[in-house]
Each structure stands twice: as structure tokens, then as C-alpha cells.
Amino acid sequence: MNGEPEVHEEFEARLKAYEGRPAAATGVGRDPVNEPMIRHWCEAMGDTNPAYTGPDALAPPTMLQAWTMAGLSRRPERTAAYDALLGLLDESGHDAVVATDCEQEYLRPLRPGDEITFDSVIESVSGRKTTKLGTGYFVTTRTDIRAGGELAGTHRFRILKYAPARRPKASNAPKERRPRPVVNRDNAGFWEGVARHELLIQRCTGCGTLRFPWLPGCNGCGSLEWDTVEASGEGTVYSYVVMHHPPFPAFTASDHAAAAAGPFAVGLIELAEGVRIISNVVGVPYDKVRVGMPVRLCFRRYDDELVLPVFQEVTR
Q1: pLDDT, tens digit, for every residue of 155-194?
Q2: What is the residue-wise DSSP string for 121-153?
Q3: For the ChsH2 C-terminal OB-fold domain, which residue ranges apply (predicted)?
Q4: 164-173 as b/e, with b when 16 or more CB fall inside 10 Å?
Q5: Which residues lie across from 117 on neighbouring strands?
Q6: Which of 138, 38, 30 is nearest to 89 (CA)?
Q7: How far apart are CA 202 and CA 216, in angstroms?
Q8: I need a labelling partner for 162 at 20 to 30 A (CA). Which of 24, 86, 151, 307 fits?
Q9: Bridge-partner residues for 158, per DSSP?
Q10: How many secondary structure helices (H) and strands (E) does the chain include?
């Protein structure tokens, strides 16, 4: 044996020694649970549940992390133990990082006026894992959120610290293809429409409610019967995010009026019909995209198999 497994075991034992140690200093929420933040959250999410308004309002459970966030002007204080763990991984060559997932558990509802405290620990460090990105270790932190000293919920956040996989460079290597959409029996009709350059919206034949994305049943009345209407193609940017990193060679400069490896905008488009769709905003630099910007549907072919609906700025 060349000793490599023992080296891994020794290194992983060092990593495991950090489990259970604090990841961030015990904190206090910058603001109590409050109605303005709840209202802003619901407006952004389009959530009209009456439980989140009125004198007996609850905070949406998925806001759990919002009450612990430090804001743009300051960052939560990481402990020396957490910095040492990340430093150990960096020094061993696992210096790339990607967030993989989070989990939340809700133990009691939060209401306006609740004072929030929280603490975070390094819950686990996985064994050595090999992924498509590279070989590395999953680090999970657990944050316990309390209201009035009572445990209200738990937020787990997981990252992968990895050594990027080396990819052979070849001058004749094929261009990377865009990821394929997942087509199933519930949305096949939508993608058939896209192939014909039609953007189809489901319409419940029971109550007439339009819905997108496609679903097997109506959220309004529960009917399983539906037909479709074709979108006019007119819309506005309801919200957007800018993807900075990591770069994806399959998303080219011609798509986003930016460098191939540079940032690009992903928009939440509100169609004239009232439903929203996530798509790329094309033909305009990412830093020129704005909320409320009028856009119009178009279809782009990316390869022999893939056609996607995208949106262009409407110029006056």
C-alpha cells in the first residue's frame, strides 16, 4: 500500500475534531420580528396567505433565516475554529467552495414582536467525496434560532470545499452544451409548444385560473382539467439576479452581451397575462437590467435539439 488511505484518515480525523465547535458568535437579531419585513417578504414572493396579515399575523416560516442576517453593512462574526477549519481545507488544496443546500426545521411560529437570538455550530464534516466538480469535503453548519429563549427553528447550511477537477484541454474539444430542461408528463406540452415557438400557459377549465409553471392540478379549485392559452409575449422584469460565479462556458457572449465567462442576468418575468416565468434577459448588458423594464418574448436555438424562450428589452 502507498499509505494514501492512512493519510486521508489522519487528515479527516483532524477535520472531524472541529465538529461541535461554534461556527459563529452567539448573535441577536438586528430587529424583532416585525410586520414591515413580513409584508415586504410576502410582496416579493407573491404570497397572499391571510395568516401573514392582521392583528394575529404570523411570520412566514421560510423567513427563519431573515431574522438572523447581518445586513449589507456588516458580516456575522465567524469563530476562530471555523476559520481554522476552512484554512486547513484551503492549505490542503481544497480551496474552491460551492454552497450545496440548506435545510430548515420549524418548531414554533414567529410573531411580530418576538426577539430573536441564535447560535451556530459546525455540525458535521463529511468524509472525502468525489464529485463532478472535484474531490472534497462537505461542511454543515447548524444555526439554532430562538424567540424569547425558546427554540423556534433550525437552519442547516452545507458547503462543499473541494479541489477542482483537472480537465484536459484539447483544441478540438466540442463546445459545451447548455443544460437540458427536465421534460416529464406534466410539462411535456409546454416544451412541445416551445418547439413551435409558442409560449403556452395552463388554464384551469374549472375556475379559469392561469398557472405557470405547469402543474397537474389547480391550486385554486383542485380541478385536474385544463387547457392552454398562448402568451402574447409582452412582459416586464419583476425581479432579477446576476450570476457572477462560477462561469459556465455554455452561456456565451452572444446570449448576454457580456464576456463568455462574465456575469449575466436571470430575470423573473411577469407576463401580460399575470403569471411569471424565469428566463434569461438577452441583448442587453447585465448591469442595464432593471426591475420594471419592458421586455418581449423571443425564441433562441442553441443547438440542434434545444430551443428556449428568452426575453429582449423593448426599446422605445
Answers
A1: 999 999 999 987 666 556 566 788 889 899 999 999 999 9
A2: EEEEE---EE-SSEEEEEEEEEEEEEETTEEEE
A3: 229-300
A4: eeeeeeeeee
A5: 28, 146
A6: 138
A7: 10
A8: 24
A9: 101, 140
A10: 5, 14
